[in-house]
Specification:
20 helices, about 500 residues, mainly alpha, globular
């Protein structure tokens, strides 16, 4: 909302309230689950429980007391999983007040409402332009679905909107404080997600003719990128497989430029083949639909750029957004995996749409209407296949029982492996039961094939699996103690002294 009749604080309050009402009403209308009834333990998104339990550990203890990792891996320094500690420090700020199983979700709602409000006020968006923004998000659906989850995408929506808002203030009002906050936001974004170092292009573009500020951008970008590379190498637990492929960059760093170029070309061609195959097979699937949406928005922005440049109209923010989107997309293709990387494009969609809205209201409105029409016709329906986890008394009771048992048998030890539960990933046991793991304990996502291989030592003190599985058979044969058994899961505890453990287990 925007009205000259209201003081600034009132406009902010009204805008935030309107954004929250829109999000809550949309979620209830589409998924038929009131926000108070969203129950993450019934969700099948395994990443959510890892995020949620790490946040709970960060808030309560400063860091997990057990190891988070994959196939009994752990970070060289610290106990966080493959995304490192930075993102949880950011979430811990509101997380100190927003507690419970849905704490991550409440933080996401807060971040998105705050980012929306700041951007709308900085850009002086009328209620009509905000309505266009809301309509486009509603048509896309996927960005809003992630708001009501324990995933970190909403934080990046908020950071993108805040970066754009600070940039607008710094450019239009010559606001030094806004430019300084912009640099700080870019540093935070880089530390949380390495490829978001590209956001430093925003303060750099604003300070292009100011050598001192340009130098600050270069140094700030280099320091924050260096910091996140240190975090990746030392504070990230190794994933099941290479999560970020730095091979080409390492080749270039060693002077093998031709080999690096060939490697990048091969990776890019292979990734684009995967992307186009997904788009051709089914527009409504998550991978194909996400990339189709990105390409469509990018095409609209580029066309508007060309037309506006020819007619002498504003192009600055569209240009920044287009360059950012292209660089991030190429980074995802070259260093990540196209399938998993598709959801990362949702942040780019928000940035492109917001930038278009600032400079070209009519094309933005047309894009929103076109997206809504395609969604209604089912051509690009990114709501397809999504559900919202809702409360179940049966699951709630089971989660509480798991927590009671693990709390009772929790080791009186500071050794991280003594405070770690291994989850048999691939066995018929629902990951939502891990919400019953007491706050502070670590969680290992161990593939069932890894756990059943006698050559792989199980360091975790506890293992969660299902009855009548090869994992259970191995644990029975090695004399592990069953401390909990139900139709949904079994929990074993080591009965012998294990590697890295501090004392007797019985």
């Amino acid at each position: 909302m925007h009205s000259k009749r209201l003081p600034g604080w009132a406009r902010a309050a009204c805008t935030a309230a309107a954004a929250l009402v829109f999000l809550l009403v949309y979620e209830w209308a589409v998924y038929k689950v009131p926000v108070t009834q969203i129950f993450l333990p019934t969700s099948s998104w395994s990443d959510e429980v890892i995020y949620s339990k790490q946040l709970a550990a960060a808030v309560r203890y400063g860091a997990p007391q057990g190891y988070f990792g994959f196939n009994e891996s752990h970070a060289e320094v610290g106990t966080y999983a493959a995304w490192g500690p930075a993102v949880f420090f950011v979430y811990a700020l509101p997380g100190l007040l927003l507690r419970g199983q849905n704490a991550f979700l409440w933080c996401n709602l807060l971040f998105v409402a705050a980012g929306w409000t700041f951007f709308a006020l900085a850009a002086r968006l009328s209620w009509k332009r905000q309505a266009v923004f809301a309509l486009a998000l509603a048509a896309m659906n996927a960005p809003i679905r992630y708001v009501f989850s324990a995933m970190q995408e909403p934080l990046h929506y908020a950071l993108a909107l805040a970066v754009l808002g600070c940039g607008i203030l710094a450019r239009r009002d010559r606001n030094r404080a806004a430019w300084g906050i912009l640099c700080a936001l870019c540093a935070v974004a880089t530390l949380v997600r390495p490829y978001e170092a590209v956001l430093w292009l925003y303060p750099l573009a604003l300070a292009w003719r100011d050598r001192r500020r340009a130098a600050v951008c270069v140094v700030g970008g280099a320091v924050s990128l260096g910091g996140t590379l240190v975090l990746m190498s030392k504070f990230y637990a190794p994933y099941f497989f290479t999560n970020v492929d730095m091979g080409a960059l390492q080749e270039a760093a060693h002077g093998h430029l031709l080999e690096a170029a060939k490697d990048m070309a091969r990776k890019l061609i292979g990734a684009m083949q995967t992307v186009f195959a997904a788009m051709a097979s089914d527009f409504t699937n998550r991978t194909g639909g996400y990339y189709l949406l990105l390409f469509a928005l990018l095409a609209v922005v580029i066309v508007c750029l060309a037309v506006d440049a020819r007619r002498g109209r504003p192009i600055f923010w569209k240009g920044c957004a287009a360059v950012t989107a292209v660089i991030v997309f190429l980074a995802l293709m070259l260093m990540y995996r196209p399938g998993e990387g598709s959801r990362h494009t949702l942040v780019l969609d928000v940035l492109l749409l917001a930038s278009l809205l600032v400079e070209d209201a009519r094309p933005a409105g047309g894009t929103a209407l076109a997206a809504a029409a395609l969604a209604l016709l089912g051509v690009v329906n990114l709501a397809d296949g999504y559900t919202m986890p809702h409360y179940s008394a049966e699951w709630d009771a089971e989660v509480q029982q798991v927590e009671t048992v693990l709390t009772h048998y929790r080791a009186d030890s500071d050794a991280p492996w003594d405070n770690t539960v291994a989850y048999a990933f691939g066995d018929p046991v629902h990951c939502g039961l891990l919400y019953g793991v007491p706050d502070g304990m670590g969680i290992q996502f161990d593939e069932a094939a890894y756990l059943t291989d006698p050559n792989h030592e199980i360091y975790s003190r506890y293992v969660m699996t299902a009855a009548d599985t090869p994992t259970a058979a191995r644990l029975d044969a090695e004399g592990w103690q069953v401390i909990y058994q139900s139709e949904k899961c079994m929990i074993y505890m080591r009965t012998m002294q294990g590697p890295g453990m501090s004392g007797p287990c019985v």
